[in-house]
Amino acid sequence: MTPALPALRADGLSVEYSKHAVLSDLELEIPTGQITTLVGPNGSGKSTLLKALARIQPLSTGSVTLNGSDIHRMKTREVARSLGILPQSPLAPEGITVADLVRRGRHPHGRSLGRGAAGDTDAVAQALDVTGTAEFAGRPVDSLSGGQRQRVWIAMVLAQTTPILLLDEPTTFLDIAHQIEVLELLASLKHDHGKTVLLVLHDLEQAAAYSDRIVALKAGEIAAVGPPNDVVTESFVADVFGLASRVIHDPDTGAPLILPRGRARPGPATAPNPL
Ligand SMILES: Nc1ncnc2c1ncn2[C@@H]1O[C@H](COP(=O)(O)OP(=O)(O)OP(=O)(O)O)[C@@H](O)[C@H]1O
User: Fold this and answer.
1) Which ligand 1 atom is at minimum distance from the Cα of 18?
2) Number of Cβ atoms within 10 Å of the Cβ of 95
3) Whose CA is nearest to atom 1 of ligand 1?
4) What are the protein's GO molecular function terms (predicted)?
5) ipTM of the complex in this document
6) How far apart are CA 186 and CA 184, in angstroms?
């Protein structure tokens, strides 16, 4: 049996902003049907990589392959039917209602809005239901709390019913119970529907608990890739985040748990100040 094609693949991918390199020559595969999470310090390039993989961010060199095809040669609608993205700070049109915003997720499926094709109505209802946002359907998005709004954006991405989901910090603004609910939802979309999920998360423990693979970025380069228990170690946390820690393991699941011990202090680079 030939191995499944990766859902997404980056070859020699570099991105620069105003001639300043932000991602440098990355080689990466996002396996089909798995949850992969990008982690790394602020400014390490996670959002830029997510956008580059979704064709939103132009590349300075390299290529991105979506299900075996060069994404830059594909029709926009074809890309949109394969891949749904939740950016870091999405903006809703002023005054739009929750139901209308979520319905916009159906755009790539080609029917004009408001015609209520059965598939569209089902997808929107299901997305509202699984994200617990049906009760807000008639309200303007800008009248919701940050966490409610975040769940509505997730609903919009789910309504697209794409096989690949790219989500930049989907748990931002959510309380702990809703964070876990979103991660459980993504896990069930993988298990029950075979979805491929690529996430950006800041919480390393949640990333480890819910991901098949972690990809760590540091200053625009890949610092580590692999299963959570191989990647999340004390030396990893010190090297990538500059944080001294103890890493223990959840007695029930075996997932790594990080006990912070303060900023990692490198050995003295210069002679101590005599004062
Ligand atoms: N539009 C832009 N123009 C210029 N520089 C940018 C732009 N967007 C991002 N950058 C810079 O690129 C680098 C990577 O940013 P990016 O948002 O990808 O990082 P990140 O890892 O997602 O960060 P965070 O964890 O803070 O969200 C940062 O130094 C950032 O300042």
Assistant:
1) 4
2) 10
3) 17
4) ATP binding; ATP hydrolysis activity
5) 0.98
6) 5
For atom 25 of ligand 1, the residue with the nearest CA is 42
For 106-141, how does the pLDDT look when each residue is reduced to its tens digit (9 = 90+)? 877 665 444 456 678 889 999 999 889 999 999 999
pLDDT-based confidence at residue 269 (cuts at 50, 70, 90): very low
* Cβ of 44 less than 6 Å from ligand 1: yes
Q: How many CB atoms lie within 10 A of CB 204?
A: 25
pLDDT tens digits, one per residue of 36-93: 999 999 999 999 999 999 999 999 999 999 999 999 999 999 999 999 999 988 889 9
Q: Is 91 helix (H, G, I), strand (E, B) or coil?
A: coil
Does 259 score more than 60 pLDDT? Answer: yes
Class of domain 6-260: alpha beta
